[in-house]
């Protein structure tokens, strides 16, 4: 695929991801989440998405509050310091409007790594003796979705096996996720798809490789030659990326190493406002519907974004107010 | 009024968060590999690093190995984590290193804990029809499975200290053996994967430890102003108070100085106590 065909717009990227898709993202909790694309999926009122995430965050809450998500398979959702749990998920769980399948964080990491290596399952000894492995709590099984006919859903949540090689006891097998789309939010992508992540790369290499289609949304598209001068500094190879999108500030209100900090006030306001569905709808009416990404940035205003902007030597903002 | 930096601060000169932070820091031994989740434990570990454990190796779950951040991160994914670190990478590395057996100590939190140290961070009430869905497990069960010791920091309320947590997110000293779910000692269930388990719970009332034989929680020290009987009253199970060693040591002036002037001057996790008549260093 030539570079010209890899470059698409945010709207074209959102159009690729249809109802019922399985989906995962780059980043970690409140860092480097592809929020601009998430807003676009909400505007398009996507339904029945199956999110399979190493961990969740504000993007999960935005999608769940909007009613886009049918199944959430992960280990954690919240806003870190800025909101102690995912209030939209909690509400939808209470109303039985969403299916949640719980794994541990290491299990999700190893599952994603298995998918990235083309392996059908991962093996781990984490979380032995916990309710994560309670057979009564296989929620997709209880919903009758583990009949083997669904491309995204394994025939069981986990399996126990005894180590057949060294006799080291009970092991837990967890299925590799079947991901249709991985959406990355990164600092730089080359014209041919080479990705350079700066800072901790979380599970981005595994996430990029696990999906059928990988979309990299970058703060900037840079000349491919520039990235190839230092290939050992690159994170994801060109051939693992199918589409690229240039979109500055695409991770706001989450943070991006070297570019901008987490907008804690935005997340705190979201958490406070969206405890009820009415609150969510009002929030989405203000920040999502009826505007595009540039109108969103204009609404934020330059003083706010300047304040979040990272110091280029330190890679984080020295002006943003964090506590107190 | 004058004080020496190594002296213990007096009641009113420090807050509960200061006390918890210092109690947590004292759980760290020098040269240990310590795994940090987000929150007050990050301050505690960095406090230990600046006092009695200068050679500890700090791992941030999101992908930082041997971190020495000059500025406090607000979460483990923060851009501040990796400044000065040996390596910045990702979760596959941190969890593989943990499962491989490198981690001595992990700090964790929880919404509910039971008498065996099982912790719930997933859902309050019946999992299938919960009163409140919480964040989920995060790395809590993983660190607790892989580390040699784990320390939990929790708010102390009677509803949180239960006989049996409604959902075991993170394994204590008696765990469920599937498929039947009968409670069995952790050591026998984990077999050769066994490395340890919860070694302390630091609540807002006291410090608790676990009996090696029975796996049951007992009270180790009471925070200033608390009594063993009062703390037992704040548990839903019959807490063993026969082994109480006395009072949890308060912060020293040096520790308070480090917490508020160097580690968390922005009061991200630890608010400053406002003093009418602050002591002056001698």
Predict the CATH topology of chain B: Glutaconate Coenzyme A-transferase
* Assembly type: heterodimer
Individual helix count of chain B: 7
Helix content of chain A: 25-40%
The CATH homologous superfamily of chain B corresponds to: Glutaconate Coenzyme A-transferase
Report low-confidence residues of chain B grouped into runs of 5 or more: none
Number of domains of chain A: 1
Number of strands of chain A: 11
Question: Regions of chain A with pLDDT < 50 over 5+ consecutive residues?
Answer: none
Strand order in the sheet with the most strands of chain B: 5-4-3-2-6-11-15-16-17-18
Described by the principal axes of the CA atoms, the overall outline of chain B is globular
The succession of helices and strands of chain B, N to C, reads: EHEHEEEHEEEEEHEEEEHEEEHEHE
Q: What CATH architecture of chain B do you see?
A: 3-Layer(aba) Sandwich
Percent helix range of chain B: 10-25%
Derived from helix and strand composition plus strand pairing, the structural class of chain B reads alpha/beta
Architecture of chain A in CATH? 3-Layer(aba) Sandwich
CATH topology of chain A, by name, is Glutaconate Coenzyme A-transferase
**Mean of the pLDDT scores of chain B?**
95
The global form of chain A is: globular
The CATH class designation of chain B is: Alpha Beta
């Amino acid at each position: 695929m030539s570079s010209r065909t890899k470059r698409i717009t945010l709207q074209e990227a959102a159009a690729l991801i249809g109802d019922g898709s399985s989906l995962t993202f780059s980043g970690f909790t409140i860092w480097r989440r592809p929020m601009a694309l998430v807003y676009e999926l909400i505007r398009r009122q996507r339904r029945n998405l199956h999110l399979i995430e190493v961990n969740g965050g504000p993007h999960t809450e935005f999608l769940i509050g909007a009613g886009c998500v049918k199944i959430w398979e992960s280990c954690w959702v919240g806003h870190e310091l800025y909101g102690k749990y995912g209030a939209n998920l909690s509400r939808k769980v209470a109303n039985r409007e969403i299916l949640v399948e719980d794994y541990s964080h290491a299990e999700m990491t190893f599952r994603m790594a298995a998918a990235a290596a083309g392996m059908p399952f991962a093996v781990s000894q984490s979380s032995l003796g916990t309710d994560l492995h309670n057979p009564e709590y296989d929620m997709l099984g209880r919903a009758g979705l583990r009949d083997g006919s669904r491309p995204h859903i394994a025939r069981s949540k986990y399996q126990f096996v005894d180590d057949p090689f060294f006799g080291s006891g009970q092991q837990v097998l967890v299925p590799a996720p079947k991901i249709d789309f991985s959406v990355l939010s990164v600092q730089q992508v080359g014209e041919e798809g080479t990705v350079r992540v700066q800072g901790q790369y979380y599970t981005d290499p595994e996430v990029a490789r696990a999906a059928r289609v990988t979309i990299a949304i970058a703060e900037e598209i840079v000349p491919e030659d520039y990235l190839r001068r230092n290939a050992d500094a690159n994170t994801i190879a060109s051939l693992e990326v199918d589409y690229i999108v240039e979109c500055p500030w695409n991770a706001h209100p989450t943070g991006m190493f070297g570019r901008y900090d987490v907008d804690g006030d935005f997340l705190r306001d979201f958490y406070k406002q969206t405890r009820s569905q009415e609150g969510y709808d009002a929030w989405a009416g203000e920040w999502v519907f009826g505007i595009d990404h540039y109108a969103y940035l204009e609404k934020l205003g330059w003083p706010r974004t300047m304040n979040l902007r990272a110091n280029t030597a330190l890679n984080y903002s020295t002006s943003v107010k964090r506590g107190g | 009024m004058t004080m020496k930096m190594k002296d213990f601060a007096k009641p009113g000169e420090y807050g509960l968060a200061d006390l918890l932070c210092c109690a947590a820091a004292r759980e760290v031994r020098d040269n240990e590999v310590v795994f940090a989740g987000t929150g007050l434990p990050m301050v505690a570990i960095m406090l230990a690093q600046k006092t009695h454990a200068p050679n500890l190796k700090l791992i941030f779950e999101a992908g930082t190995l041997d971190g020495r951040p000059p500025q406090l991160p607000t979460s483990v994914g923060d851009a501040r984590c990796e400044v000065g670190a040996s390596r910045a990478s990702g979760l596959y590395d941190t969890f593989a290193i943990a499962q491989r057996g490198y981690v001595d100590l992990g700090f964790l939190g929880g919404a509910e804990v039971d008498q065996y140290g099982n912790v719930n961070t997933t859902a309050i009430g019946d999992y299938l029809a919960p009163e409140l869905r919480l964040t989920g497990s995060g790395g809590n069960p993983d660190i607790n499975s892989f580390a040699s010791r784990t320390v939990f920091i929790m708010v102390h309320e009677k509803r949180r200290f239960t006989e049996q947590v409604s959902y075991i997110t993170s394994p204590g000293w008696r765990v469920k053996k599937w498929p039947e779910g009968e409670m069995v000692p952790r050591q026998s269930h984990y077999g050769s994967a066994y490395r340890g388990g919860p070694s302390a719970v630091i609540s807002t009332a006291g410090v608790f430890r676990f009996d090696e034989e029975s796996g049951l929680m007992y009270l180790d020290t009471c925070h200033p102003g608390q009594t063993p009987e009062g703390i037992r009253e704040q548990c839903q199970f019959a807490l063993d108070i026969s082994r109480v060693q006395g009072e949890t040591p308060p912060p020293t002036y040096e520790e308070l100085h480090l917490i508020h002037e160097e580690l968390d001057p922005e009061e991200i996790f630890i608010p400053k106590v406002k003093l009418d008549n602050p002591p002056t260093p001698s």
